[in-house]
Amino acid sequence: MFDYLIVGAGFAGSVMAERLASSGKKILIIDKRNHIGGNTYDYYDESGILVHKYGPHIFHTHSRDVYDYLSLFTDWRSYEHKVLAAVDGQLVPLPINLNTINTLYGLQLSTDQAEAFLKERAEKISPVKTSEDVVMGRVGKELYEKFFKGYTKKQWDLDPSQLDASVTARVPVRTNKDDRYFTDTYQVMPLHGYTNLFTKMLSHPNINIMLNTDYRDVITFVPHKYIIYTGPIDSYFDYCYGQLPYRSIEFRFETYDKDIFQPTGTVNYPNGQAYTRITEFKYLTGQQHKKTSVVYEFPKAEGDPYYPIPTAENAALYKKYQLLAETAPKTYFTGRLGTYKYYNMDQVIAQSLTLFKSIMKDQPIEMQANGYKKTLQQT
Ligand code: FAD
Ligand code: UDP
């Protein structure tokens, strides 16, 4: 008898598996894919270059707890991601910063002058509700159209005015020269990759792993007390209220017989091309190799559900599933698909750590994992 049957071996499911196993529970973790790691899975391609199968994954977090927790299973390399955008025939920094403005407009503005420049152009919008409002309110129409309108249409097949404000709010605007994509306290990559991290995380004797298996095919004959579900929530309930929309992506990998392909980790293509961005893995991983591998991302409607689509309508539909989930006996939902949230890795990890604590809240326990020992406090 397993204590927990966990569906999905991405971060959401694997964190639950590891925490519960380390507190003495017997776990079966199931994934329909042929590997652990969910969307963060990485592997060495034919040329021996470490690539991310489901698109570039850059780890960043403000959370000391999340960083400390993952540090049980990996060493790190420091990595601050940088992005350039191809606009008006030039490659300029994204997020928009002082250098972006000066390069695009042939100016030599100071920070104060750049603030005035943006203030003059920004539109006064209140309340800020949509992804269009966010950007128009920060930089005005021209920069909005150069950097955000076309990219967002490609990525989501929606106009920014149809998307929740939180989507484009992920990308800040700066008037200094900071050209980092993220400003989190911890910006690191697992030294030997994500799959290696997951292998360590799931190597506990209380954890059994079943791959290439849809949980529906085994659930009736594997005895278990509880379910933790991290797949798409609408699928769990047989789409009883209709399908939740997701955005998918086709990843096209190329290997070039040269040391370096592009000047930075990612180049975004807001306009023109069918792909949104190209990422060169060696920047992310620090690998030395005489060839280089990149991935082009082509967003599409059909395919694996990668992105929940943050619109008011979809949030309302999710709410109905969430209410159903709250009544599902002995079943917990977590993760990007399980809770239909456009979450980064660290948010998913934090969400699962919180769920673990709430499951265990009545019984403070001693957890032990790879030499790490901590008494859980009741929260
Ligand atoms: P997943 O990793 O999707 O895991 C869910 C698992 O459940 C899957 O492996 C799936 O096969 C399995 N499953 C589903 N249904 C079933 C079933 N019926 N039976 C058995 N198994 C099932 N985050 C960052 O922090 N930084 C980044 O740079 C970043 N880049 C990203 C780039 C792309 C292109 C994408 C799509 C996402 C990116 N993310 C990034 C987000 C990150 O991928 C997620 O936050 C994280 O992987 C979610 O983990 P999860 O466990 O919730 O879901
Ligand atoms: N975005 C944009 N232009 C860009 C980069 C981002 O319009 O060059 C918008 C777009 O809507 C995108 C969102 O900002 O989906 C969030 O960007 P992020 O890079 O965080 O997306 P992710 O890495 O999650 O795909």
From TrEMBL:
Cofactors named for this entry: FAD
Pfam families noted in UniProt: GLF, NAD_binding_8
- Membrane as a keyword of this entry, yes or no, is no
Task: Kindly state which keywords UniProt assigns to this record, in alphabetical order.
Answer: FAD, Flavoprotein, Isomerase
Q: Which residues form the UDP-galactopyranose mutase C-terminal domain?
A: 146-342
Answer whether the UniProt record assigns the keyword Iron-sulfur to this protein.
no
What's its top-level EC category?
A: isomerase
Q: Which InterPro entries does the record associate with it?
A: UDP-GALP_mutase, UDP-GalPyranose_mutase_C
**Gene Ontology CC terms, in alphabetical order:** cytosol
Assigned EC number: 5.4.99.9
Gene Ontology molecular functions: flavin adenine dinucleotide binding; UDP-galactopyranose mutase activity
Which family would the database say this protein is a member of? Belongs to the UDP-galactopyranose/dTDP-fucopyranose mutase family.
NCBIfam families noted in UniProt: UDP-GALP_mutase
Record-given protein name? UDP-galactopyranose mutase
